[in-house]
Amino acid sequence: MRFLSRIVTIAFILSVSEISAQEPEFPLEDFVGEGVQNIIHGTELVIEDPIFASWRIPFADEIINFQKKTNKPVYYSNISAVWFNTRNTKALLIPMGIKYQDFSFQLTIPYVFNRRIKYSNYHANARGIGDIGLSINRSFVSSDKVFTATGLIKIPTGNTDVIDQYNGTGYPVPLGNGSLDFGFGIGAEIPVNIPKMGRLFLSNKIHYLFRSPKIWSVQNNGFNTEIEARNGNTLWYNIAAMKRISKRIQFYIAANFLVNNGGNSSWNIEQEDGSATNGSDASNFQEMKLLDISPKIVYLNNKYHLSLLLDLPVLTQRHENNTEPDRYPILRFGVTIPVHLSKVKP
Predict the structure, then answer these.
(1) What's the structural domain count of the chain?
(2) CA nearest neighbour of 240 among 206, 283, 289
(3) Taking the chain, what is the end-to-end CA distance rounded to the nearest angstrom?
(4) Can you tell me the distance from the alpha carbon of 231 to that of 240, in angstroms, rounded to the nearest whole number?
(5) How many Å separate Cα 80 from the centre of its chain?
């Protein structure tokens, strides 16, 4: 009996030694470094993407804007220039739109003058073309009410493999999210009369964006790593009121609410000896809820429209382990040039 117990003890010790000698499964950050971790888990690259920001808080004058029903064809276009400036992104957006009767199409091209990614002791920076945005609208006009259905597409034209162009850190600074994203939305624009305030135009819009995965290929410390990362899907809602102060001046006040899902990532790591390690992460770092209040003033004449918008963060709820800095107010300025292609003006 004593002999049998000794055999069991020796077998247990050998098994424990074998387990302890096995190579442990390292966390992802041991292979790809802090830079890619910031990109995968960060929420600022989601909300500061110029195209997404222009969708979330509409800025440039929209093609359809409280238009009354007409049986005559309306065919016109516009082009805008919008300066977009946040803590980590400075970009110029060029929205170009065209409308024919109840359909409208808008193409927005952003040029990122500076995109900054924060690392432990320094920043990495880059510039270039960002992701391009497309939107298609179908309007349904009833008397002085306008209802809209919208389709959104974000094309990953922004280079995600750019390395720091200014400080020589060697860290990546993506100019886009690297994924082909699709969304849809519905909206309503309704005029109302309020005592002592006169006639106001109310706008309600709700959108949902589906984000597709992005494949990252990283070489670091002798390891080849392939990461599939997906930003969380996003729901946002806008409610706005517009008051005509005069014939040429309009004032808007809007509340913008956003809910972003957590996102996830998975990876396959190949080492020099040919062995591989697989893993996944659903830490939901990208979970967030945002509420902003955005006043905007617009000056209109026959040749151009000038817009000034202030985005004021009211509520920011992020994942409890997310250490990104607080948001701060953002000021945006833009000019729109309408081009009427028919005799009937909207």
Answers:
(1) 1
(2) 206
(3) 98
(4) 28
(5) 20
Output the furthest CA–CA distance in the chain (Å, rounded). Answer: 105
Residue 56 to residue 291: CA distance in whole angstroms = 11
Residue 45 sits in a domain whose CATH number is 2.40.160.40
Global pTM value: 0.81
Establish if 279 belongs to a structural domain: yes
Tens digit of pLDDT per residue, the chain (346 long)?
454 444 434 443 433 333 333 333 445 555 455 556 666 667 777 788 888 888 888 765 443 343 444 444 455 577 788 888 888 889 999 888 887 778 888 889 999 999 888 776 778 888 999 999 999 989 888 877 889 999 999 999 988 777 777 777 677 788 888 889 999 999 998 888 888 778 888 889 999 999 888 876 666 556 677 777 778 899 999 999 988 888 889 899 999 999 998 777 777 777 767 777 777 776 677 889 999 999 999 998 878 888 899 999 999 998 887 777 788 888 888 888 877 655 444 4
Q: Would 329 be classed as within a structural domain?
A: yes
Q: Does a structural domain hold residue 2?
A: no
